[in-house]
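Input record (one chain):
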Amino acid sequence: MSSRTVIRGGLVVTASDEIHADVLIEDGRVAALAATGTPAAEAFSAERVIDASGKYVIPGGVDGHTHMEMPFGGTYAADTFETGTRAAAWGGTTTIVDFAIQGVGHSLREGLDAWHAKAEGNCAIDYGFHMIVSDVNQETLKEMDLLVEEGVTSFKQFMAYPGVFYSDDGQILRAMQRAAGNGGLIMMHAENGIAIDVLVEQALARGETDPRFHGEVRKALLEAEATHRAVRLAQVAGAPLYVVHVSATEAVAELTRARDEGLPVFGETCPQYLFLSTDNLAEPGFEGAKYVCSTPLRPREHQAALWRGLRTNDLQVVSTDHCPFCFSGQKELGRGDFSKIPNGMPGVENRMDLLHQAVVDGHISRRRWIEIACAAPARMFGLYPKKGTIAPGADADIVVYDPHAEQVLSAETHHMNVDYSAYEGRRVTGRVETVLSRGEPVVTEREYTGRKGHGVYTPRATCQYLN
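The corresponding structure, as predicted from the sequence alone:
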């Protein structure tokens, strides 16, 4: 049974073009586009017609950095694959790439299998996996080759969290050398965790236990130092590098320098670093705990460098690092000791709207919005043009977006499984109206019409910026 949908009268916005066009969808894929009002467009016929007059028609968002059901600090991220992907869909994101975790002493395969088991049959939208490599040894390195062959083409390492995910420079170099050979992309959490642990210990000894000290000990210079080291190790290995959640002016400068040298080095930032600051970490009482994540929020003056990096393409991607912990019962584990506050913030539902607000505010253009939220992450992680654009043959992951609707972000109305919003009370212009995932309506005129199990696992090619 062939199923056809036409989206009529909207402004189709991709990373490269803006055109008033009708979109014909057939059997879950984009079949054709034609300028609105032309004979070609008039000839489109379908059982389902969506009126997008006065609206944008944009590709579904690709969030390349989420942590559903992630264990951390004795608890678990509050969103399951079911609740987290449903919230993503509400926010106009139609693909996530989550992180499977290798436990120390275990194989990559065991970690990947565990994450497949969590996700399979539960997701409202399509998903892929990166692999967190916690234990570099000869067997792990061999497994990296096998994972790349089957579509897990990126591997995350940590210069932070000694005793948990931490890799030393030798382990990082070995993994980078392997990636240089198999086409994989190393993703790096760049903070000097060894030095940070010393500063944490010293702060607690002085009685500095409040959430704001989380930001003070995880210094911007230690992010920059680790970023520099990661770039140089990747250069020695002849490997590409993707630095996650860049938050500081000095770290952006390291990436800019590397890119000016022609190195295959990439960077992402996240909405929390663009819209929030240490002012939030310093909120009275224990409220600042809501904003504890790593890398930490920075003083407001760092935001200008991040926006500039996004405009100059020294930063290519905005992902969320969605890793929600409820304030009640989870964040509260760190009352009296900021180092015990679970690190992470909710955001998978807010990213597309916050970045549209950045268009309204003049930070970025409409096409750059789509590039950093849809096309660039799809290319970075080997999903383009199946994902990240609206073009014949692409998956019909499409959002009808009302650029004029106003909304107030709030925990009262969001769909993430967490008891607070990092953006509580913030008024934004622009709102998702209808979301299609492979041609199926997941959100229909602000009503949820999706189902768990619609989303399928999506193997990925290697980074398409390197071809």
